[in-house]
Structure formats: structure tokens, C-alpha cells
Amino acid sequence: MITIAVCNGWDLDTADVSTAYLNAPMDKPVWMRQPRGVKDPLDRGHIMCVLSSLYGLKVSAKNWHRTFTIKIKAFANHLGG
């Protein structure tokens, strides 16, 4: 991304991507029990489907990398490269 900005004479700003890791969609369904304190009092055995990556999941890094790669390639194609 830095190379694209330099080659095009663009200004480059930094961004905090620490939470970007958590915004990657899951590629396969992951089910989990609700954490303590979040349980529905009407349904103690409630489980939920995880829709986006969570810290601690083994697939979170892979999902973020896949999402980032897709976006960068789409951006490069948009630029004609």
C-alpha cells in the first residue's frame, strides 16, 4: 500500500488497525456457548453462531489476512494494475 501511495504521489496517513482483526467475517460456521454474564436467563443452554473473528480463535488471523488480501487486490485492480 505504501508503494502504491508513493508511486502515485499520494499523501499517506496512518490508521489504527488493531480492531480490524475483529472485523473479518468467518469463512465457516463457528458455534459457541454464550460467555458468563451474557446468558439469556430464559434459555440457559443457549448457543450462538460467531459472525466475525474473535481474539483467541485459531482461524481469526487467517480470516483477517484473507479479507485484507481481497480488499487490496480489488483496490489494485481498480487502479488498473
Structural write-up:
The chain has a two-stranded antiparallel ribbon with strand order 1-2. Helices cover about 30% and strands about 20% of the residues. It is elongated and about 60 Å long. The protein is of the alpha+beta class. The model has no long low-confidence stretch (mean pLDDT about 80). The chain contains 2 helices and 2 strands.
State the end-to-end distance. Answer: 13 Å
The side-by-side strand order for the widest beta sheet comes to 1-2
Helix/strand class: alpha+beta
Run of helices and strands: HEEH
Number of extended strands: 2
**Cα Rg:** 18 Å
- Tally of helical runs: 2
- The residue-averaged pLDDT reads 79
The low-confidence runs, each spanning 5 or more residues with pLDDT under 50, are none
Q: Main sheet, how many strands, which sense, barrel? A: 2 strands, antiparallel
Instruction: Assign an overall shape.
Output: elongated
Q: What share of residues is helical?
A: 25-40%
How much beta, percentage-wise?
A: 15-25%
Q: Which SSEs are present, and which pair or pack?
A:
Layout: H1 2-7, E1 25-33, E2 47-52, H2 60-78
